[in-house]
Amino acid sequence: MKVLAVIPARGGSKRIPRKNIKIFCGKPIIQYSIEAAENSGIFDEIMVSTEDEEIASISKSLGGKVPFLRSAVTADSKANHVDVLAEVIEEYEKRGMMFDSVCFILSTAPFVTPERIKQAYQVLTETKADGVIPVVQFGYPIQRALSIKDNQLTMIWPENILKHSQDLQPSYHDSGQFYWLDVKSFKKQKKFFPKNAASLILPESEVQDIDTEEDWKIAEMKYKILRDIK
Question: What stretch of H or E contains 154?
Protein backbone atom coordinates (compact mmCIF):
# COMPACT_ATOMS: atom_id res chain seq x y z
CA MET A 1 0.00 0.00 0.00
CA LYS A 2 1.43 3.35 -1.05
CA VAL A 3 0.31 6.21 1.18
CA LEU A 4 0.55 9.94 0.48
CA ALA A 5 0.17 12.96 2.77
CA VAL A 6 -0.85 16.24 1.14
CA ILE A 7 -0.66 19.51 3.07
CA PRO A 8 -2.34 22.41 1.22
CA ALA A 9 -0.76 25.83 1.80
CA ARG A 10 -1.91 28.56 -0.55
CA GLY A 11 0.03 31.79 -0.22
CA GLY A 12 -2.84 34.22 -0.65
CA SER A 13 -4.75 33.82 2.62
CA LYS A 14 -6.79 36.98 3.25
CA ARG A 15 -8.34 36.91 6.73
CA ILE A 16 -5.02 36.04 8.37
CA PRO A 17 -2.16 37.15 6.05
CA ARG A 18 0.56 34.51 5.49
CA LYS A 19 -1.52 32.24 7.71
CA ASN A 20 0.19 28.98 6.72
CA ILE A 21 3.63 30.08 7.94
CA LYS A 22 2.58 32.47 10.71
CA ILE A 23 4.30 31.67 14.02
CA PHE A 24 2.06 29.65 16.34
CA CYS A 25 3.41 29.01 19.84
CA GLY A 26 6.98 29.39 18.66
CA LYS A 27 7.05 27.81 15.21
CA PRO A 28 5.39 28.11 11.79
CA ILE A 29 1.91 26.65 12.07
CA ILE A 30 2.46 24.39 9.05
CA GLN A 31 5.26 22.68 10.98
CA TYR A 32 2.72 20.97 13.27
CA SER A 33 1.09 19.27 10.27
CA ILE A 34 4.39 18.23 8.72
CA GLU A 35 5.71 16.84 12.01
CA ALA A 36 2.47 14.96 12.74
CA ALA A 37 2.68 13.31 9.33
CA GLU A 38 6.37 12.45 9.75
CA ASN A 39 5.96 11.11 13.27
CA SER A 40 3.05 8.89 12.27
CA GLY A 41 5.54 6.80 10.30
CA ILE A 42 2.99 5.63 7.74
CA PHE A 43 3.57 7.86 4.71
CA ASP A 44 5.66 7.08 1.67
CA GLU A 45 5.57 10.75 0.67
CA ILE A 46 4.74 13.95 2.55
CA MET A 47 4.19 16.86 0.19
CA VAL A 48 3.10 20.48 0.53
CA SER A 49 0.87 21.87 -2.21
CA THR A 50 1.61 25.56 -2.70
CA GLU A 51 2.22 28.16 -5.38
CA ASP A 52 4.26 30.33 -3.01
CA GLU A 53 8.06 30.16 -3.16
CA GLU A 54 8.53 31.23 0.47
CA ILE A 55 6.08 28.65 1.77
CA ALA A 56 7.75 26.03 -0.42
CA SER A 57 11.19 26.92 0.95
CA ILE A 58 10.04 26.85 4.58
CA SER A 59 8.15 23.60 4.06
CA LYS A 60 11.20 21.89 2.54
CA SER A 61 13.37 23.09 5.43
CA LEU A 62 10.86 21.44 7.80
CA GLY A 63 10.89 18.10 6.01
CA GLY A 64 8.02 18.45 3.56
CA LYS A 65 8.51 17.85 -0.15
CA VAL A 66 7.45 20.27 -2.87
CA PRO A 67 8.06 18.32 -6.09
CA PHE A 68 5.95 20.78 -8.08
CA LEU A 69 4.10 24.06 -7.52
CA ARG A 70 0.38 24.56 -7.84
CA SER A 71 -1.04 25.74 -11.11
CA ALA A 72 -2.61 29.19 -11.40
CA VAL A 73 -6.04 27.54 -11.37
CA THR A 74 -5.66 25.78 -8.02
CA ALA A 75 -3.78 28.75 -6.53
CA ASP A 76 -6.86 30.92 -7.07
CA SER A 77 -9.00 31.72 -4.02
CA LYS A 78 -12.02 30.18 -5.79
CA ALA A 79 -10.36 26.76 -6.05
CA ASN A 80 -11.46 24.19 -3.48
CA HIS A 81 -9.72 21.30 -1.78
CA VAL A 82 -11.08 18.80 -4.28
CA ASP A 83 -9.44 20.75 -7.11
CA VAL A 84 -6.14 20.88 -5.22
CA LEU A 85 -6.04 17.18 -4.39
CA ALA A 86 -7.11 16.12 -7.87
CA GLU A 87 -4.24 18.13 -9.33
CA VAL A 88 -1.72 16.65 -6.89
CA ILE A 89 -2.76 13.07 -7.67
CA GLU A 90 -2.67 13.77 -11.41
CA GLU A 91 0.80 15.35 -11.21
CA TYR A 92 2.19 12.40 -9.26
CA GLU A 93 0.70 9.93 -11.73
CA LYS A 94 2.34 11.83 -14.59
CA ARG A 95 5.62 11.14 -12.78
CA GLY A 96 4.78 7.45 -12.48
CA MET A 97 3.94 7.57 -8.76
CA MET A 98 0.66 5.90 -7.80
CA PHE A 99 -0.88 5.92 -4.34
CA ASP A 100 -3.58 3.77 -2.78
CA SER A 101 -4.69 6.23 -0.11
CA VAL A 102 -4.09 9.86 0.74
CA CYS A 103 -4.34 11.94 3.89
CA PHE A 104 -5.17 15.59 3.22
CA ILE A 105 -3.84 17.41 6.29
CA LEU A 106 -4.72 21.07 6.68
CA SER A 107 -1.76 23.37 7.19
CA THR A 108 -3.39 25.25 10.07
CA ALA A 109 -4.12 22.28 12.33
CA PRO A 110 -1.75 22.53 15.32
CA PHE A 111 -3.87 20.11 17.35
CA VAL A 112 -3.43 17.25 14.88
CA THR A 113 -1.37 14.35 16.25
CA PRO A 114 0.37 11.30 14.77
CA GLU A 115 -1.84 9.10 16.92
CA ARG A 116 -5.09 10.49 15.49
CA ILE A 117 -3.77 10.20 11.94
CA LYS A 118 -2.88 6.54 12.56
CA GLN A 119 -6.22 5.80 14.25
CA ALA A 120 -8.14 7.20 11.30
CA TYR A 121 -5.95 5.26 8.86
CA GLN A 122 -6.73 2.08 10.76
CA VAL A 123 -10.45 2.81 10.42
CA LEU A 124 -9.95 3.37 6.67
CA THR A 125 -8.16 0.07 6.15
CA GLU A 126 -10.32 -2.04 8.46
CA THR A 127 -13.69 -0.77 7.24
CA LYS A 128 -12.64 -0.43 3.59
CA ALA A 129 -14.41 2.93 3.59
CA ASP A 130 -14.04 5.46 0.79
CA GLY A 131 -12.86 7.99 3.36
CA VAL A 132 -12.52 8.75 7.06
CA ILE A 133 -13.29 12.16 8.54
CA PRO A 134 -12.42 13.21 12.10
CA VAL A 135 -15.44 14.92 13.65
CA VAL A 136 -16.39 16.57 16.94
CA GLN A 137 -19.80 16.68 18.62
CA PHE A 138 -21.62 20.01 18.77
CA GLY A 139 -21.45 21.36 22.31
CA TYR A 140 -25.17 22.12 22.34
CA PRO A 141 -28.06 20.32 20.56
CA ILE A 142 -28.49 21.86 17.12
CA GLN A 143 -32.17 20.82 17.27
CA ARG A 144 -32.60 23.86 19.54
CA ALA A 145 -31.00 26.27 17.11
CA LEU A 146 -32.37 29.80 16.99
CA SER A 147 -32.94 32.16 14.10
CA ILE A 148 -32.92 35.97 14.10
CA LYS A 149 -34.88 37.71 11.36
CA ASP A 150 -35.83 41.39 11.44
CA ASN A 151 -34.56 41.45 15.04
CA GLN A 152 -37.04 38.74 16.04
CA LEU A 153 -35.77 35.59 17.77
CA THR A 154 -37.45 32.29 16.92
CA MET A 155 -36.69 28.59 17.22
CA ILE A 156 -35.96 26.84 13.94
CA TRP A 157 -37.50 23.63 15.27
CA PRO A 158 -40.01 24.77 17.95
CA GLU A 159 -41.21 21.19 18.44
CA ASN A 160 -38.03 20.55 20.43
CA ILE A 161 -38.49 23.30 22.99
CA LEU A 162 -39.64 20.97 25.79
CA LYS A 163 -37.42 18.01 24.96
CA HIS A 164 -34.54 17.09 27.25
CA SER A 165 -31.08 17.52 25.75
CA GLN A 166 -30.24 13.87 26.33
CA ASP A 167 -33.27 12.85 24.28
CA LEU A 168 -32.04 14.67 21.18
CA GLN A 169 -29.79 12.91 18.71
CA PRO A 170 -26.12 14.01 18.95
CA SER A 171 -24.85 15.97 15.94
CA TYR A 172 -21.28 16.35 14.73
CA HIS A 173 -19.23 18.70 12.60
CA ASP A 174 -15.99 18.44 10.66
CA SER A 175 -12.96 18.92 12.91
CA GLY A 176 -11.07 20.78 10.18
CA GLN A 177 -7.85 18.79 10.67
CA PHE A 178 -7.46 16.09 8.02
CA TYR A 179 -9.28 13.74 5.65
CA TRP A 180 -8.31 10.20 4.78
CA LEU A 181 -9.38 9.13 1.31
CA ASP A 182 -9.13 6.04 -0.85
CA VAL A 183 -7.53 7.33 -4.04
CA LYS A 184 -9.60 5.21 -6.47
CA SER A 185 -12.83 6.29 -4.80
CA PHE A 186 -11.76 9.94 -4.75
CA LYS A 187 -10.93 9.92 -8.46
CA LYS A 188 -14.43 8.60 -9.19
CA GLN A 189 -16.45 10.71 -6.75
CA LYS A 190 -14.31 13.86 -6.45
CA LYS A 191 -15.63 14.42 -2.92
CA PHE A 192 -14.11 14.85 0.53
CA PHE A 193 -17.33 13.46 2.01
CA PRO A 194 -17.67 10.31 -0.13
CA LYS A 195 -20.66 7.97 -0.16
CA ASN A 196 -19.07 5.37 2.09
CA ALA A 197 -17.53 7.64 4.72
CA ALA A 198 -16.47 6.56 8.19
CA SER A 199 -15.64 8.79 11.15
CA LEU A 200 -13.22 9.28 14.01
CA ILE A 201 -14.78 11.19 16.90
CA LEU A 202 -12.44 13.69 18.56
CA PRO A 203 -12.92 15.43 21.92
CA GLU A 204 -13.70 19.14 21.79
CA SER A 205 -10.42 19.88 23.58
CA GLU A 206 -8.50 18.81 20.45
CA VAL A 207 -10.43 20.93 17.98
CA GLN A 208 -10.31 24.66 17.20
CA ASP A 209 -11.24 26.53 14.03
CA ILE A 210 -8.66 29.16 13.08
CA ASP A 211 -10.32 31.56 10.65
CA THR A 212 -9.80 34.93 12.36
CA GLU A 213 -7.17 36.66 14.49
CA GLU A 214 -9.38 36.04 17.53
CA ASP A 215 -9.56 32.32 16.67
CA TRP A 216 -5.76 32.32 16.47
CA LYS A 217 -5.38 33.76 19.99
CA ILE A 218 -7.90 31.30 21.40
CA ALA A 219 -6.13 28.40 19.69
CA GLU A 220 -2.76 29.44 21.15
CA MET A 221 -4.24 29.67 24.66
CA LYS A 222 -5.90 26.29 24.24
CA TYR A 223 -2.72 24.71 22.89
CA LYS A 224 -0.65 26.03 25.81
CA ILE A 225 -3.15 24.63 28.32
CA LEU A 226 -3.23 21.22 26.63
CA ARG A 227 0.58 21.04 26.38
CA ASP A 228 1.13 22.70 29.77
CA ILE A 229 3.20 25.47 28.21
CA LYS A 230 3.83 28.54 30.37
Answer: strand 152-155
Q: Give the contacts of 91 (CB within 8 A, at least 6 positions apart).
A: 67, 68
The residue type of 104 is F
- pLDDT at residue 230 in the model: 61
Asked if residue 139 lies in contact with residue 172, where contact means CB atoms within 8 angstroms, the answer is no
Q: Report CA torsion sign: 190, 194, 196, 201.
A: positive
Q: Which residues pair with 39 in a beta bridge?
A: none
pLDDT, average across residues 91-115: 97
The tens digit of pLDDT for each residue in 53-77 reads: 999 999 999 999 999 999 999 999 8
Per-residue pLDDT, averaged over 91-105, amounts to: 98
DSSP structure class, residue 100: S
User: What is the model's pLDDT at position 13?
Assistant: 82
Across 78-88, average pLDDT: 96
CATH 3.30.565.10 fits 3-137+171-227, yes or no: no
Domain ranges of the chain: 3-137+171-227
Those residues with Cβ within 8 angstroms of residue 4's Cβ, 6 or more apart along the chain or in another chain: 43, 44, 45, 46, 47, 88, 92, 99, 101, 102, 103, 183
**Structure pTM?**
0.94
CB proximity list for 44: less than 8 A, separation 6 or greater: 2, 3, 4, 99
